[in-house]
Amino acid sequence: MVGICGALGDYAALPPEFTESVSHRDEETRITVEESEFTLHGSFHSVLAGEQPATAADGDVRIWVWGDVYGYDSGSEHVARSNGRGGSADFCARLYDAFGMEFVAGLNGDYALVVHDAVEETLSFVTDRLATRPVFYARPDDDTFVFSSASQTLTTYPGVDATFDLPYLYEYLQLRRVFGVKTPLAGIEELPPASVVTVDLEDLSTETWTYWTPSYEPVDKPFSAYLDEFVDTVTEVLEEWTDDDLDYGLLLSGGSDSRLIQAAMDQPMTTFHNADFMSREARVARRAATVSGDEFRLLERDEKYDARLLEETPPLSNFSGWFDQAYFSGFEAEIVEEVDVLVAGLYADMLFGGNPLATYAFSVGDVGTLSLPIRRPVDSIEDYIDLQTKDAIEPLPYFDSSLSLKSVLRSNIRRDGDGVVSHGVRYGSLQDLVMYGDFYPMGGDTDAIFSRTLMQMRPYRTPFLDNRLLELAQKIPVRYLLRRNLVDAAVTELDPGLASIPHARTGVPLKHPFAVSYLGDNVYGLWRKHVADESPPEPHLTHTPWPNRQELVRAKSFTEETLSDRRQLLEDFEFFDFDGAMRCYDDHLNGINNQTVLYSLLTILNMPATRRAHTALTRSTSSTDSVATDGVTDTPTGVTSDE
């Protein structure tokens, strides 16, 4: 595991579990800085680490970088970092000497920075535009500030109680994420995206400067103009990234996003596809690898793969996604053995496919549901809340019935002048919240654990989060996002051979117009469902990369086993209900779809922070029982609530 952690002020010795949370393999480069005012521990991939810290301002400023800085945007041009792999810290130091702390506004990359100014006696934390590398913090007392890239680890620090903030825990259970900078752990928040949080080392007061916010400002230009810019930018980004001396691995699906990387990247790659058998999508991915001349690796899950993920991945969670969305973690050894750098096509659909936009759909009875590529308006905060809560299961059978998802969201989303504040993060407008609230910051994404576990294995990149593509996405009109396919068109332009291969979902080659793909997505999908004889080997298996979770819960015993193993925990926390959890599971077995809230619960139950909260609760209860006074006790440790 890679990351950073430490403490400022009058701090105690950091527990071993605290510092060990940001180190994993012997080959990682570790740093330790211990001074009277702060301590910093870090573990970095050796390819990216370089010499750290880098110094600026004649030695008065030191800079550490977790991650990778790609370049700098001066306002008139993008200057790629050209000082070799591992040169991010030195690049930042030179920019600091030229522009002062304002240099961060032009940084492009996937990083978190720590900047120590000895003259000003400050320590600053800098997050990239989307906080792709999160940093969490807590204030156990007025004299201490502790931080870590692993939120659960903060509960091991003396004075940071392992307790839950119930509204945010409820939000996670329903949505598999918590928006903004909030977490379900009481007193623990994430540093905001695209921000510099400066801590005064004398009194631990903080100042926050947010240097960028996403703003949707579409520009009416021909689709061909956007296509040209998109193709040129993707190609430029990948050309800057690649190094002939490194081996690259691509997570290859049967769709188009990863295929675009194949088309644009002038570098041989080992491609990895995760599946339970040689499914339809796996066959399409293998065909794409063959056409591109890339090596294909099928990472085939066995029958116990998901059960192992349930045991192994919850400690990695920062409350954004389920345990099984660390999809490739079970194949870490194979991937690390094969490649130096991982590349994926993640977030293309979020930025260029209109995924955040609500659209119309209508039911055709037993045949299924047909979607329409027409935007459904979201004109008020209440509309937005309705959109987020449309699939909520309420009352939640196993949780405190006094809470509702709408009430939690209403208490955390408000107007602020012309803008909107959601969960501690400000957006310039309601439209910006709709467009970008799912990934600004990245913890708002429902499967951020996917990309965050990839970056633990190897240096990891997805070109679509490069600043130049983020800025392009903010200009594209809705009609192109919903009724054209920029990625398919780009693959067609760059590599007609790859574009001639059908998309695994639609059955239509990428080279065809959007209307044909749209019909394929709906009509062909229904044909496969109701006519074609493509039954997978088992009901819980699918022809997509991931299993059918609804059927997996019914087919495998890990849900019931986990609920039984954690029975005491579910009974001891007053906000949980063991009988309700078993009822939720039984209802699912009998045909009601409770998979979403069951997977969220399973993830929470196997988190170390939950076990620590339970231990604290039982100790508190035992202590209270021994000194009971007239039957009156305080609220047990492990519970806080705003409601």
UniProtKB/TrEMBL annotation:
<dbReference type="Pfam" id="PF13537">
    <property type="entry name" value="GATase_7"/>
</dbReference>
<feature type="domain" description="Glutamine amidotransferase type-2">
    <location>
        <begin position="1"/>
        <end position="202"/>
    </location>
</feature>
<dbReference type="Pfam" id="PF00733">
    <property type="entry name" value="Asn_synthase"/>
</dbReference>
<feature type="region of interest" description="Disordered">
    <location>
        <begin position="616"/>
        <end position="643"/>
    </location>
</feature>
<dbReference type="GO" id="GO:0006529">
    <property type="term" value="P:asparagine biosynthetic process"/>
</dbReference>
<feature type="compositionally biased region" description="Polar residues">
    <location>
        <begin position="617"/>
        <end position="627"/>
    </location>
</feature>
<feature type="compositionally biased region" description="Low complexity">
    <location>
        <begin position="629"/>
        <end position="643"/>
    </location>
</feature>
<dbReference type="InterPro" id="IPR051786">
    <property type="entry name" value="ASN_synthetase/amidase"/>
</dbReference>
<dbReference type="InterPro" id="IPR017932">
    <property type="entry name" value="GATase_2_dom"/>
</dbReference>
<dbReference type="InterPro" id="IPR029055">
    <property type="entry name" value="Ntn_hydrolases_N"/>
</dbReference>
<dbReference type="InterPro" id="IPR014729">
    <property type="entry name" value="Rossmann-like_a/b/a_fold"/>
</dbReference>
<dbReference type="InterPro" id="IPR001962">
    <property type="entry name" value="Asn_synthase"/>
</dbReference>
<dbReference type="GO" id="GO:0004066">
    <property type="term" value="F:asparagine synthase (glutamine-hydrolyzing) activity"/>
</dbReference>
<protein>
    <submittedName>
        <fullName>Asparagine synthase (Glutamine-hydrolysing)</fullName>
    </submittedName>
</protein>
